[in-house]
Amino acid sequence: MTKNLTYVLICTFWMLTISSCAFKIVNRTKDITYLKADSTRNIAEQKLNVFAPRKKGKSKDVFIFVYGGTWNSGHKSLYNFLGNRMARKNVVTVILDYPKSPAATYDLMAEDVAKSVKWVKDNIENYGGDPNKIYISGHSAGGHLSALISVRNDYFDKLGIVNPIKGTILIDAAGIDMYSYMMESKFPEGNTFINTFTNNPVDWKDASPIYHLNKAIPPMLIYVGEKTYPSISKGNDLLVSELHKLNRDPIFYNLKGKKHKPMITQFLNSYNHRYKEIKDFMRKNDEGNQK
């Protein structure tokens, strides 16, 4: 995430929500440690925030959000607005931090995001969420990590659990075909993408969700901005095409006029139609799993 986007998110967040009484209907539990510090990897402890509707009753769908930031920046607090809005729409929402490059490669990031999903599976009932209705979403680099752990079960195999993700929601996801992007870009040593994905083409392919698709992967809801970066547009178009070949037809929206950053800042608007689309996606998938 660039500094400009960070500034926009902070300013717009406060303008839209500082006087909102709607916060009163959300229970917020912040800075929960889901992963202890690891000195062997020079990784600090990782934390997450949980936003839950105060209204009790039937266990609710769970929405995990992984933010973007070129795999080297970002913080969960910038996305509290998303947690609050989703919770007000009766969805238990989890916003998490994860290790960043250069301290962590994409693989370690994905491992730790998977650990956050396991934490949710094990604990979300305490917050009113249904551990059998876990959905994961991400924007940009966060979309890449969400997609990767959705299609590669080995991240959960290492944790001794079955992949609990019931659906994946990608918001202008980067890195869908990191192999092709790295091959074409020829980045020099020391570049942030080399730090994240290494200089080994085998790793680039392992990091690319497009090469791990199969008929058993969770359903996908995919958003792409019409004016996003060419690599993101190309990767997501390929993803949609390959999913169709597997008869795993995704729900796909190409949002007219949207650039990369507005693909996430649009969610500052509580009435943005994306919220309804996401809830409809979860509801229909829940109904399908019950049949």
Cross-sheet strand order for the largest sheet: 1-2-4-3-5-6-7-8
* Mean pLDDT rating: 93
Superfamily at the CATH H level? Alpha/Beta hydrolase fold, catalytic domain
What is the CATH architecture annotation? 3-Layer(aba) Sandwich
Low-confidence stretches: 17-21
CATH class annotation: Alpha Beta
Number of helices: 11
- What class would the helix/strand composition place it in? alpha/beta
Order of helices and strands: HEEEHEHEHHEHHHEHEHH
Radius of gyration using CA atoms only = 18 Å
| Measured distance between first and last alpha carbons | 41 Å
Task: Please describe the topology of this protein.
Blueprint: H1 3-17, E1 26-35, E2 46-53, E3 60-66, H2 80-88, E4 92-96, H3 106-123, E5 129-139, H4 141-151, H5 154-157, E6 165-171, H6 178-185, H7 192-197, H8 201-206, E7 220-225, H9 230-245, E8 251-255, H10 262-265, H11 273-290
Helix pairs in contact: 3-4
